[in-house]
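Researcher: Let's try something more involved. This one mixes different molecule types, so please make sure each is placed in the same coordinate frame as the others.
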Amino acid sequence: MNLTPESKVLVQGITESPASTRAALMMKAYGTNVVAGVSPGRGGLELEGIPVFDLVEQAVAAVGHIDITVIFVQPYSVLDAALEAIAAGIRQIAIVTEGVPPLDMVRLVRKAEATETLVVGPNSPGIIVPDKLLLGTHPKEFYTPGPVGVISRSSTLTYEVALELTNAGLGQSMAVCIGCDAIVGSSFMQWLQILDEDDSTEAIVLVGEVGGWSEQAAASYIAEAIDKPVVAYLAGRYAPKGPSLGHAGTLISSRAAAQSAFGVTAENKMAAFEEAKIPVAALPSEVPKLVKKLLKKN
Amino acid sequence: MDLLEYQAKALFRQMAIPVLPSQRIDNPADLKGLKIPYPVVLKSQVRAGGRGRAGGIKFVENTIDAVAAAQTIFNLPIESEYPQVLLAEAKYNADQELYLAVLLDPVARRPVLLGSKQGGMNVEGANAESCSKLQQVAVDQDFSPFYARRLTLKMGLQGDLIQSVSTIVEKMYRLFVEKDLDLVEINPLGISPTGEVMALDGKVSANNDALGRHPDLAVLSGKRQSSGLPGERRSPYAPASRQNSHKNVLQSGPQFEPNSQSQISNSESLNLVELEGNIGILCNGVGLTMATLDAVAHAKGKPANFANLGSLDRYEAADALRDRAELGLELVGREKNVKVLLVNILGSVSKSDELIAAVAGYLERKTRANRQIQVVLRLGCDRDSVKERLGQLPVHLAATLDQAVAQAVSLAK
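Model: All components are placed in one shared frame. Result:
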């Protein structure tokens, strides 16, 4: 993970839609070093000082090594765009696009593992380092610089928790949404590790869903490998019973099979966090209180 | 999107996975032209599980019995789903029944092969004992048949069955990848006394996000009798009849089933999930919707329903967000038992104008129609400017989720 205000950022699909163009300009206005955009067929265009290229490799040839790309292309083109970026030597990717077919993500994850590429998303507002860097579409008004790293699986709930931290005077060192689609590019574990090693992060908030497979895996990882204090907020405690409500279970049709395969039953939904002794906030507004308590202890 | 058994079997046939001779029956009279010799099995084509126990599968020996049985099955709802089609299939005597499946492990982000020597109804029952016998093999890298053989050995198969069953698994995997599926399941895979294998029942679930590049599967989704909009995303579990798109709502009036438990979806269609309280909830994003529900329950309030607008960035065209938000408000406020609407929408300030306009439009209409309903509005932007925009309209503004929930709960009392 290498994120600084100097990091060179590419936007793939910069002219894909008015929203993607607006997002690119917003990133730039936030201070992000957006050096180029890519939109096949739009090479030669310039958007408020951002040169647009047909191919990623042309962008790299023109501006030198690129650190991060933010992808806004259509869902069925995401895999191709990400592979193109990896081929051009880019090793950090944020995918904003929603609805990427899961098997495309499986292919991308394999490639990312082989090339040590960090992938965030799809279906993600990306990463924000308050007052320094915006990679994606986080609305800036919810964030302020501070010592708390936020890792989340949902977009607007990230804003909710960030806003509570901002209102409590804590702020965020970084907030990342790993993506709301069923199969995402990086795991909670990867980001826990990144924030554990990040000097500006003193505490970590994990925002997830009750009973999510990824959340369960994260809980035991925190107990084993994370030194910094972690607070969790898990949405869906009172969600109506029945089929999984959130993102996490959407792939599993055969519940019996899935439960057996991945070891999740209704009874142990919260148990993983209790066992790992991770404080779980009952409401987003409890998050800052729990964080303050843990920071005081340390 | 779950396919019906006969549709799944058509895909199996394409992959040369052995299936029995069968015939689709659209009405009982079709059985007079049956080309399969008796005895025959008639199977209700519904998505719900447990149709065997519910009486949706019958063995018949002759045409008279078959027509009568078909009439019974057509009139038998299974988990409130009536079959539109039956499948007539040759009878098969299996010596042994296996369970096989291919699906994705969302944590490992890899396809997984599942198998058990105890197939049939056992696995469906979800009891821990039979589940614990499910074996799994993750497909870490590019698929090769050895992954399938690894599974068969873990299942405890021996001799010729290793090769014949792993060939089936291999074909299931190829189907899974070729068609972008969420699930391919054969349960049971029958093994005859001579060691011949046969897919006796199957389940295929297509991935909704990928339907756009599989026109053959998208067509099947269009055929479903109670389907909403094409390309809708729905829970793999939720029977189609429980899904309600806003189109249905606006066109055909009150047709919501109470206590629908369909999933919050990112779908193009706006889904309303009904509960039993008196607070209607409108949010954007699955996580925020769940968090808002939790907060209401935590404050001892009772949600009447909820709807999720999804990502605000999706609404590009002028007024699209406003229309959508108004539709959402109408939807969560349409039942008379709803006393309070709790609107919790977080997004960029640039979207707030359209949202405020939606709330104003909604309230004006309700005032005209004399519908008594309170609205608690929480937007992630400056409260004073919202107040100014809404003027004298009876709306309660909240700055935080906790405030909004406290207000909504107290107003609902």
